[in-house]
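Lecture notes, unit on protein representations.

Consider one protein chain, 199 amino acids long.
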Amino acid sequence: MNMGRTRSAFEVAAAAAGIAAVLLLGTFALRQKLPAPARPAASTAGGFMPCDIPGGGYWRGSIHGDGALTIDWGGPTLGCDGNLRPDGGVRLFFAGEPTEDGHRLILVIGIGASLDALAGRELAANVTLIDESRSRFFSSSDERCFARIAAVEKLQGYATAYRVAGELYCAGSLPAVAGPESVTLGDMQFAGRFDAGDL
């Protein structure tokens, strides 16, 4: 009976470690630059593309967990990028202003719809919040978070890039991938870059 409990605990721990490793690798992948736009763009601290895009890039809202954090980030100190998801749909990510030690809060929004089907719709979204300073990962379950996309606009002067703006809200908290913690996202507004590549 004790052996069964030990095996179960080991399997749960191994699964959690595997998920964390996948998310960590995904974070490193997201930190790589997307194909260069028609005009050069400097990198922000940490290697993220700056979010000083035409029309303005921003990430606003609140996060509640151990405490309350009000977010109002934009311009070159905010990192933002986006690309196609391997399984279809689009992925947007935002990297908050770095702390003194260079760590950032990263928001990843995955939407299972094509670029031309985003504007004017409310769509289910997979959301991951990464707290680099504490190496913590929080992720939403299916049908818990939703994105309302207000606009998808071609960025002038960029080869394949678009500005995607909208709102994000979640019905309930986001549990930690490993551990008992959770965070609650207040309704958020965002505008960032999406690069369609060869789409």
